[in-house]
Amino acid sequence: MTTLTETSVAGNDDRRDNNRDNTSTLGLTGADQKFMVALDVDGTLVNHDGHMSPGVREAAQAVVAAGHEVMIATGRSLNATLPIIEKIGIDRGYAVCCNGGVTLRLHPELENGYEVIHKATFDPAPALRALRERLPSAKYALEDADGNFLSTERFQDASFGVEAVGVDFHTMLEATAVRVVVFSTENTPEEFTEAINHVGLAGVTYSVGWTAWLDIAAAGVTKASALENLRVRLGFEEHLTVAVGDGRNDIEMLTWAGRGVAMGQAPAEVVAAADEVTHSVQDDGAAHVLRSLL
Fold first, then answer.
1. First-last CA distance in the chain
2. pLDDT single digits (tens) 27-85
């Protein structure tokens, strides 16, 4: 594990040396080397109040302008992701939303500037029934195949990107889901995790957030699975991939990347999955990583 410093990106010199060796076979110079860069949003590009610092924004814009294949990879839904894409200046390329459940292609000639090229849906009923039995007071929300959010108790979160429609629990059971969110205000994170482990969520992929928060996607669907599809599509070598994130839903992505960087405030299991650790989101850790690519 390598920790980044203010003045240098530790471990990056070795990677540059490796890249020089690889570029010799590709006929590229080091300056021509382009990376596929996957960036988490909350806790990485923006702080937990949703604010992106000028330093992070400018560094991200510079990496986009330099011609690297920069893409957002977030648990946020589509409409909550688009403002971040616009803010860092990506007008063409790709983005991964809903923890890998939705993949976008971006281009100025497309209607609204994007199109959905992949959507992974699943039947949420078994997981919802099991969780409801153990966590009856939790709040539940579901993004359906059409991008609508259904929720119990008028549950709303900024990551949804649209206003959730209040429905009864039975209606949620009948929907086809892209993403399911479970949030408990009456349980500690430890109690919440214990309940999830007791239930055993078969047939889905899930990750527990910083608090008593659970994101559920289709089986086998993660940020990493969506990014791997894009890597193959775009023809990037594995060692030319970079990912930056801070949450448990970033673990697969950090392991997938040739250079996986955890934010300074990331939990221990996220740090363990990374190759490097940068500064915290409050200290513009993402900007340090991005500037190392320039």
1. 23
2. 333 457 999 999 999 999 999 889 999 999 999 999 999 999 999 999 999 999 999 99
CA dist., res. 212 & res. 75, Å (int) = 16
Q: What gap in Å lies between CA 256 and CA 238, rounded to an integer?
A: 8
Residue whose C-alpha is closest to residue 88's, from 77, 72, 103, 104: 72
Per-residue DSSP letter, 122: B
Phi, psi at 284, each rounded to 5°:
60, 40
Q: How is residue 86 annotated by DSSP? A: H
**Within 13 Å of residue 289, how many CA atoms lie on the same side as its CB?**
32
Quick one: which of 53, 83, 54, 89 has its CA closest to 70? 89
Task: With CA atoms as reference, report the closest residue to 180 among 210, 198, 159.
Answer: 159
Cα 156 → chain centroid: 19
| C-alpha torsion 104→52→156→132, nearest 10 | 80
Burial class of residue 280 (count of CB atoms within 10 Å of its CB; 0-12, 13-18, 19+):
middle
pTM of the model: 0.87
Residue 164 backbone phi and psi in degrees, to 5: -75, 145
% of the chain at pLDDT higher than 90? 72
Cβ(205)–Cβ(190) below 8 Å: no
**Interval 156-208: pLDDT, tens:** 898 999 899 999 999 999 999 999 999 988 877 788 888 888 888 888 998 88
Radius of gyration of the chain (CA): 19
- Cβ atoms of 186 and 208 within 8 Å: the answer is no
